[in-house]
Protein: Isoprenylcysteine carboxyl methyltransferase
Organism: Bacillus timonensis
Amino acid sequence: MIFWIFIGLVIAQRLIELQIAKRNEKWILSQGGYEVGHRHYKYIVLIHVLFFVSLITEVVYGEKEISVLYPILFFLFALTQLGRVWALHSLGMFWNTKIMILRGSQVQIKGPYKYVKHPNYIIVALEFILIPLLFQAYYTALIFSLLNFVMMSVRIPVEERALSVHEEYQQFRKERRRLLLTVMKPIKKD
């Protein structure tokens, strides 16, 4: 029973996010924006749909129970949801499940985006681990973590190239790179 309530809530959340993304997409397009990376987007959707199919199949047919570590796993899951809301709120009308570009607009580098380039992708990666582990669906956790890694190795470079049309994003990337080099620079001994 807990499994069905939990999965129902997560699926409902995803459907609401898709509605928000669709609304934001219409707004961006109305402002002269455009989509990038549409060829791989269908595979992202497919992975997410199959994730839930696999999870439900593994839990129901494998007669899996909630993990004994559920307090820790659920707490970590709740943190990812706070991160998800923070990321969505930080981007406002620019948040989307697709890569949408609006030339002439200012790149949103606030909230979690000040600290990490793609926080929502990190959150999804953690969910692909935490949700299955919560219900001991280890095969789903492994398979979809690997599929997500492969998909992100395609998507992130496409998104990085698309965002580079904005000068402030190019500057942000240079500053971020410089900061990392400064921190990691070996200390000279006198």
User: Anything to note?
Assistant: The chain has six helices and two strands. Confidence is low (pLDDT under 50) at residues 178-190. The helical segments are 2-30, 38-61, 70-91, 119-134, 138-163, 167-184. Strands lie at 34-36, 99-101.
